[in-house]
Amino acid sequence: xxxxxxxxxxxxxxxxxxxxxxxxQTKVTVAIGGGACLxxxxxxxARQLGEYEKAxxxxxxxxxxxxxxxLKAVLGGxxxxxxxxxxxxxxxxxxxxxxxxxxxxxxxxxLVLVVSPSHNAAIKxxxxxxxxxxxxxxxxxxxxxxxxxxxxxxxVAASDVAVIGVGLGATAVAAMQQGQIEAAVMLxxxxxxxxxxxxxxxxxxxxxxxxxxxxxxxxxxxxxxLYSTAAWIKSHEKEAQALTNxxxxxxxxxxxxxxxxxxxxxxxxxxxxxxxxxxxxxxNTLPMYSKTGMMDPKGADAVLAVFSExxxxxxxxxxxxxxxxxxxxxxxxxxxxxxxxx
Length: 342
Prior knowledge:
There is one protein chain. By secondary structure, this protein is an alpha/beta fold. 43% of the residues lie in helices and 15% in strands. The chain has helices at 8-15, 41-48, 51-54, 67-75, 87-93, 142-153, 170-177, 190-197, 210-217, 230-235, 237-255, 259-265, 268-271, 275-285, 297-310, 312-315, 328-337; strands spanning 26-32, 57-63, 81-85, 99-104, 112-115, 133-136, 162-165, 183-186, 203-206, 224-229. It has a five-stranded mixed sheet with strand order 2-1-3-10-4, sandwiched between helices. The longest helix has 19 residues, at 237-255. The chain starts with 7 loop residues before the first helix and ends in a 5-residue tail after the last helix.
């Protein structure tokens, strides 16, 4: 089961490769909160398609354990842009730190709360997680935010659950298979990998489709995006526009190609040897990807509402959501390509 997600060290090397024309291009470093996760596929695929190079950029993709680690890389100055979940910009706004999303590639978050196969008998609902160990990619990541939201929604105190950082790939799958944790918030392809071995895998909450996302949140809820500090975007508008152009073109490419064609473009180290399982996971994930790159303001409202419910700090912060995202780069990209915001 580790074949799809294994050898991530090799994938890290592959992701770090930059164009041979780097010297003639502007270098931008993008930190990803788990490059093997299908939720971040557009960021990796854009490199595979040569879209960054076409946009005049030499992009270095740095693969990290989770979204919180990618965010730390940008805040610490070792990366320029985060490829991660939009909800971090809202959470940081409550702390008076200005981060802004400038292109959205996931319409839905794709987060799935799954029960460890060996604990199916004991855990049949979210309420049963009280007193249990639950895995997330990393504490403070979107997987952690999602878990806390679900716990509160179901009347379980966050302090009653032991949160364990297990990553998003092979380490998360192994922790679930070995029963080191009773449940975990996971994403594809990890969920599909587990389902391949455990057809009766119990899913307590799923946000991979529009229907599932509406059931959980009551509205659409944007997931992955490119975002950075407001200061970096202001001083690097050319680079932000180029990144946006690359992602928008990649999203258009995804919409016009089959799952098999998409998989064929992805790095072999990420796909792994079990192509059938990867393809199944990709098919499950395709509805997640944005068709436009635009942020739906109602989606941003939903993120704020969720955080306000689970975080007193966010609820009382009087956040101006308009500062947490911008659609102007996507609008400009659409005018350039002539496709319009579909």
